[in-house]
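Review this chain:
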Amino acid sequence: MMSRDMEILKTYKPVIMQDTKEPFSITAMGCTVFRETKRSSSFPRREIVVNREEMAFAIEYAIWYDYDIQHLYELEHVWVYVDHEGAVKKVEASFHGKFLNIVDLEHGELILEGDTHPIVYAQPGKHAMLPDPRLVRIIPDWLESCLIKAGTDGVLVQDMFEDQIHTDDKLQIMTEEYIKEVFGFCPSLEFQPFYLEDEKMMSWEELKESIPQRVNRQIDIIKAYYNIEK
């Protein structure tokens, strides 16, 4: 990644507010700078619109977790739109396959740390992104997903990785049980900031290339937990 882009990514990197009992940390961010309107590679249902009259660029932060509380691995997104003076003009974030505006619910203003770092709240365990932690309570099964429904989806395999990530019924059952037993928790609904180290930021292409290795590493950990040979 070009050094110029890396400085931009650091300047506008989001602050993710996580539940104080959240069992999972962000382990990587795959980043893309858009200087023109273009379809996202990591969230392909979205076209990232950059109106050059108003915006200098948009940044897509693809946020990688090794686990969701209900399945192996998670990819969430924050989009930051920056004008020609370097000011943040708009922030969006992913929410269960869709996306939301990240604004203060009382006044509609941006929520920033300093002048450039958007503040976004992650749903406990599931990591869907929200502008306000009070919204967690309106999400169906927000509590059950972390407790009795933890692990229910096992290993997810996206089409693009089906030749590199393999699962079967036995691994699915092990993964479901492992997540529920090791990571199941009761959220506090109290939140604290998570600051990802700069060295864990990379281009989306670098993150995408590493995903099979990241997932298979966790599969090996799960097998070892149950004394299953690789």
